[in-house]
Design goal:
By secondary structure, the protein is an alpha/beta fold. The protein has 12 helices and 8 strands. It has one domain: TIM Barrel. 40% of the residues lie in helices and 9% in strands.
C-alpha cells in the first residue's frame, strides 16, 4: 500500500485568511492572548532562527531517477551537514519498513532510516500509515499512531548515544490535519499529552510536496529546462513564505519568533535543498534545533480551531484572533499549476504561470 503523497483539502494562505475578514516537553496549551496593539509596527530583526524538519521518512512521493532513495537521503544529509543544520527531526511513517527484507523497497526503507539516525538526526512520530484524521474513527487513528512507536524506540536504541536528549515522542500530524471537530482535536491532544508527546508545529510551509511529482515527471522526460525552472521556483516560493511568516508572526506576537520549516523526503526537496538553505541564510536565517523553536512562547498558545484543512500554525492563530493578512500571490493556485508541469497535455508551460516573489533580501 502506498502512502499518500498529497495533502487532501489542503488549505492555502489565501483561503485561510479570507475566513477571518529549548526542550521538548508536554503539549498543554493556553488560550491565545489578544493581538498586541503595536504588533504591526514591530521591526524585523537582522536575523531569524529556524528549525528544519522533514516529513514522510522513509518514503515520500515518486522515487529519484536512479531509484535509489538511500542515496537521495544521503544527499539531503550532506546538505544539512554543509550548512550546519542541527538535529533535523525526520517524521516517520513506519509502514514502508514492514515486510520481507528480501524485497528491495523494504530493505531500502529501513536503510534510509538507519542512515538518518546514524547521521545524528532524530526521529518523530508521523503515524504508521500517514493516516488521515478526517477519514478514520478516533480509536483507529490513535492505534495507527501507537503502532509506529516500537520502530521509533528501536531506531533510537540502534543510534546509541547519538540521539541522547532528542526524544522520539514528538508528533507531527499527517497533512497537518488536527481535527475537524472539537471532539477529535481535543481527544488526540489529550492522548498526546497523557503519553508524553510534544506537538511539532509548523510555521513555514511552502507546499514543497507538490513539487515532487512534476520533478519526477520532468526527470523521466529528460527535460532539463523544466527541471531547472522547477528548482528555481521551489527556492523562490519558500523564500517568499519565509518572508510572509516573519511578517505575520511579528503582527501576531509583536516580535520576531522562532520558526519551524516543513520539508519532505522527496526528489524536488533533495534537488533544491542546498540552494534553499543558502537562500535562507542570505535572508538572515540562523539554524536551530526543533526543541529550541518550540520553546518559543508563541507555540504555547492553543488556537482551538477545529478545521477541515491543514495549515501552518500562524495561520490558525490569525484565524482564532480574527486577524486578517493579505493572501499570497505566489501560493495562489500553486498546486494546480504544478500538477500540469510535464503532464501529457501541458508540458512545462505552467512553470511560469504563477507570479514569483521579489528578489530583494528585505523581509
Amino acid at each position: 500500500m502506498s502512502l499518500p503523497m498529497t495533502r487532501p483539502l489542503v488549505f492555502t494562505a489565501a483561503a485561510l485568511i479570507s475566513i477571518s475578514s529549548g526542550s521538548l516537553a508536554g503539549c498543554r496549551r493556553s488560550p491565545p492572548p489578544p493581538a498586541p496593539a503595536a504588533a504591526s509596527s514591530a521591526a524585523p530583526a537582522p536575523f531569524v532562527e529556524v528549525a528544519v524538519t522533514v516529513d514522510d521518512l522513509p518514503v515520500h512521493g515518486p522515487p529519484p531517477p536512479d531509484g535509489d532513495r538511500v542515496r537521495m537521503i544521503g544527499r539531503m544529509l550532506d546538505a544539512f551537514h554543509r550548512h550546519g543544520v542541527p538535529h533535523v527531526y525526520g517524521f516517520v511513517n513506519g509502514a514502508k519498513t514492514d515486510g520481507d527484507l528480501g524485497l528491495p523497497e523494504v530493505a531500502g526503507a529501513r536503510a534510509v532510516l538507519r542512515s538518518w539516525v546514524a547521521a545524528g538526526h532524530p526521529v518523530g512520530n508521523h503515524t504508521w500509515t500517514h493516516v488521515n484524521l478526517l477519514q478514520v474513527a478516533l480509536p483507529d487513528y490513535l492505534a495507527d499512531l501507537e503502532r509506529n512507536e516500537p520502530l521509533l524506540e528501536r531506531l533510537v536504541t540502534e543510534a546509541g548515544g547519538r540521539l541522547t536528549g532528542l526524544p522520539w515522542k514528538v508528533f507531527r500530524y499527517p497533512y497537518l490535519f488536527e481535527g475537524d471537530t472539537l471532539e477529535k482535536r481535543n481527544t488526540v491532544r489529550a492522548h498526546l499529552r497523557e503519553h508524553g508527546y510534544q506537538i511539532a508545529e509548523v510555521s513555514i510551509d511552502g507546499e514543497d510536496w507538490a513539487f515532487n511529482p512534476p520533478f519526477a515527471r520532468c526527470a523521466a522526460r529528460g527535460d532539463q529546462k523544466a527541471l531547472s525552472q522547477l528548482h528555481d521556483r521551489y527556492v523562490s516560493v519558500h523564500v517568499d513564505e519565509l518572508r510572509r511568516m516573519r511578517e505575520m508572526t511579528r503582527l501576531l506576537a509583536g516580535r520576531e519568533v522562532r520558526h519551524v520549516l516543513l520539508l519532505h523526503a522527496g526528489v524536488a526537496d533533495t534537488d533544491a535543498l542546498d540552494d534553499l538553505l543558502t537562500a535562507y541564510e542570505k535572508e538572515g536565517v540562523r539554524w536551530i534545533e526543533l526543541g529550541t523553536s518550540l520553546a518559543d512562547p508563541f507555540y504555547a498558545q492553543d488556537p482551538a480551531q477545529p478545521v477541515r484543512f491543514g495549515a501552518a500554525f500562524p495561520y490558525l492563530v490569525a484565524r482564532a484572533r480574527q486577524v486578517s493578512f493579505p493572501p499570497s500571490a505566489v501560493m495562489r493556485d500553486l498546486e494546480r499549476s504544478l500538477a500540469t508541469i510535464c503532464s501529457a497535455s501541458n508540458g512545462a508551460a505552467a512553470l511560469t504561470a504563477a507570479p514569483q516573489p521579489p528578489t530583494s533580501s528585505t523581509p
